[in-house]
Amino acid sequence: MSDDTLIQALQRVLHKGIQSSRTLIEEDIRSTSGSTKLTEIKNGVVVKLSPPPDSGSAALNSWLFPQFDRACSRVCRSCDYIVFLPRSKHTRLVVLLCELKSGSMSGALAQLRGGLLLAEYAINAVLVHCPPKTLPEVIEYRGVIFWNKGRVQKGATGPRSGKVFARDCVTGLPYVDERAGLPHHVNSFCMERMPKERREHQFACTRNP
Fold first, then answer.
1. How far apart are the C-alpha atoms of 1 and 208, rounded to whole Å?
2. Which of 73, 76, 72, 77 is nearest to 99 (CA)?
3. Per-residue pLDDT for the chain (209 aa), expressed as one digit of tens each?
């Protein structure tokens, strides 16, 4: 079975229990200003990387990374959400790696790096085993850290105001920190491509025989 687009293939192969289309609302961030929301997620896929309900937060590592020793905490890390966003009539795919911190930003970059690896694995798995008919010309990864002391950048809730991104020195991932407890228009994180942003997917030309 071949899907028409990469986003359709991801919707089909990712576990339905972790998918939520058009919704990213985080209530439990200990923010006094309200819920953290990403709005206007159209035709995208939101993946929440958390253990099944009632399993407890301690189960996160063993649930996400059963093949790794939980004592290796640097390996067993991931961000809270991965949002796959098709843009420009599916010629671009923007992948937002979102981490929500209730305290300081400590450890947030390491969690974004883990989310980056998981997102790349999901995309590569699709490209190898069930490549869609149409592939995006570019896949862009961007990290977003929401925390209580994050910056409120001008136009944070508007669709046309881009963000000022820093760059992770380990992975080269562009990332930005934002104020938790506010609504943010998803388009403000998806402005035009930044230099050297693309990460190559070696299987992007793969096709089933």
1. 10
2. 77
3. 678 999 999 999 998 888 876 667 765 555 455 688 888 888 889 998 876 555 555 556 666 776 777 677 677 788 989 999 998 888 889 999 999 887 777 789 999 999 999 999 999 999 999 889 988 888 999 999 988 776 665 545 455 556 778 889 888 899 998 888 888 888 888 876 665 655 656 565 544 43
Q: How far is CA 6 from CA 44, 97, 133, in A?
A: 11, 18, 8
How far apart are the C-alpha atoms of 86 and 7, rounded to whole Å? 7
Pick from 146, 33, 16, 22: which is nearest to 80 by CA?
146
Rg, the chain, Cα only: 17
Q: Write b or e for each residue in 113-142: b if 16 or more Cβ atoms lie within 10 A of its Cβ, otherwise e.
A: bbbbebbeebbeebbeeebbeebbebbbbb
Q: Please name the residue ranges forming H helices in 66-137.
A: 108-129
- In DSSP terms, 25 is beta-bridged to 37
Task: For residue 96, give both structure tokens.
Answer: 């937002």
Q: How far apart are CA 152 and CA 176, in angstroms?
A: 11
Q: Tell me the one-letter amino acid at 145.
A: I
